[in-house]
Amino acid sequence: MDIQGVAQSAIPLLTQLGLKVVGALILWVIGRKLIALGRRLVVRSLKYPFDQTVATYIGTAVSVVLNIALIIAILGFFGIETTSFAALMAGVGIAIGAAWSGLLANLAAGVFLLILRPFKVGDFISAGGILGTVEEIGLFVTSLTTLDNIRTFLGNGKILGDNIQNFTATPYRRVDLVAQLDNSVNHAEAIRLLRERLRRIPNVVPQPAPDVEILTFTPLGPVLAVRPYCHNDHYWQVYFDTNRAICEVGGDAGFPAPQQHVLVRSGK
What we know:
Helices cover 53% and strands 18% of the residues. By secondary structure, it is α+β, with helices and mostly antiparallel strands. Helix 1 runs antiparallel to helix 2 (52-77), helix 3 packs across helix 4 (101-116) and helix 6 (187-199) packs across helix 7. The longest helix has 44 residues, at 3-46.
């Protein structure tokens, strides 16, 4: 066997293959950078006629399509018949679609989320059992940042198939708290003092006015419903300030701590 002859004939083939590999890598790197640039331009150009939610969704779809086109172009660069590859990919796509029907359901749900618009990027919502701020609505999943700053990803199908609460959709929301009074406390005086104090809490909206009414009764005494209103961005600040106000009003007015009084009668 002529090893030298084989080596001499193999060197041009290996050189040609090496050049193609280097060219494919360069094409891949440049193509990926151009796709990322194109995605940013699409999102930026669509942000004003639409909004951030729709623009991001369309940008992601464009990026997926361009990446598939880039892969086909690289295969063509290596001399692989792209028409046969496209037919093969179509068959594989059908098989994957049948196996991954859940992903297709999430994709369809993502489209309906854009059409129905129950929320948009930046809204504070409750969906799929998760409470958080919408960061991105993707092709298959929607990402939320929870109150304890954890990025959570939810399948679009789970979101659309469950109840959705959008706390940002309205100009204000209600803070629900209670104040337990002792039986000896004048409830009318307590209600008056709490109403005056709630009006001085920052970011409590003047209309509708805070609600302070008797909610129920317990053996300790009447229970007051204390319900100021505020914008969602200030919810927790108003929540904690209202709790502090309940404590301060009771202390400043000298209201006794709620105690259950038991009358004991001795039998004769």
